[in-house]
TrEMBL record:
Keywords: Hydrolase, Magnesium, Metal-binding
EC annotation from Swiss-Prot or TrEMBL: 3.1.11.2
Pfam families reported for this sequence: Exo_endo_phos (PF03372)
Annotated family: Belongs to the DNA repair enzymes AP/ExoA family.
GO molecular function terms noted in the UniProt entry: double-stranded DNA 3'-5' DNA exonuclease activity
Lineage of source species: Bacteria, Pseudomonadati, Pseudomonadota, Betaproteobacteria, Burkholderiales
Gene source species: Variovorax robiniae
Protein name: Exodeoxyribonuclease III
Residue spans crossing the bilayer: none
């Protein structure tokens, strides 16, 4: 079973590139982020023609997440992260959760947080804290769970081509990295890091300053596996060539391959 995550950076405008990738690689489950369209405007018909059932949490202009499943309808279990008492309602479409073939699929688009310091960075950290609380609850269930998406955090200096021009960027700040480490300490396995322990591949290359041709990339798209799933991982990777397509997103798809197993494990 192949589960992939892709920040498509505008699903309507980049539908040809998305469909080309799906047609060639045919992942079983896909988590999409940064749809930049409402639920009603999401191109369900075109994706159903490729064999995918769709669950969408859209938002006009910004954000938006979706879960695609090939040959099976995703069963929604949560739309948006749970709130603690006194926390304000979150109006941004950044989290969607569904059950697919016995696996809980959590698709997320964590806030960017720039500029920092400021309210956007505060929102990023507060959202991260809510994610970590909910992720801890998911771990406690013992169910097989995937957390996949654009986390907007570069875990270490080894996950970026150079930190020189990124020192003040929210993606590299100590608070965001501490939240990432706290998440992993719950028991999640970073699939790409496990597959490539020495040199983990990049997943994002900015459109600016010729960064794609120079391979001046970052790793901010991640697939995390609960203990029940980590033992089933056989391979993980980045479909880097998709970033090189004309008119493509500035991200590349990330994926993990899972061996067949007992869904109730």
């Amino acid at each position: 079973m192949r589960i992939a995550s892709y920040n498509v950076n505008g699903v309507v405008n980049r539908l040809p590139q998305l469909c080309a990738w799906l047609d060639v690689t045919q992942p079983d489950v896909v988590c999409l982020q940064e749809l930049k369209c409402t639920t009603a405007a999401f191109p369900q018909r075109e994706l159903k023609a490729l064999g995918y059932e769709v669950l969408v949490h859209g938002q006009a202009t910004w954000n938006g997440v979706a879960i695609l499943a090939r040959g099976a309808a995703p069963l929604e279990t949560r739309r948006g992260l749970p709130l603690s008492k006194g926390e304000p309602a979150d109006t941004q479409s950044r989290y969607l959760e569904a059950a697919v073939n016995g696996i809980v699929i959590a698709c997320l688009y964590l806030p960017n947080g720039n500029p920092q310091p400021g309210p956007k960075f505060d929102y990023k950290l507060a959202w991260f804290q809510r994610l970590n609380r909910h992720a801890a609850d998911l771990i406690k269930t013992g169910h097989p769970v995937v957390l996949a998406g654009d986390f907007n955090v570069v875990p270490t200096d080894g996950d970026i081509y150079s930190t020189a021009s990124w020192k003040d960027n929210a993606l590299l700040q100590p608070e965001a990295r501490a939240a990432w480490r706290a998440l992993l300490k719950q028991g999640w396995t970073d699939a790409l890091k496990r597959q490539f322990p020495d040199k983990t591949p990049y997943t994002f290359w900015s459109y600016l300053r010729n960064r794609w041709p120079r391979d001046a990339g970052l790793r901010i798209d991640h697939v995390l596996l609960s203990p029940a799933l980590a033992q089933r991982m056989t391979e993980a990777g980045v479909d880097r060539a998709v970033r090189g397509l004309e008119g493509s997103s500035d991200h590349a798809p990330v994926w993990v391959e899972l061996a067949d197993g007992d869904a109730s494990a």
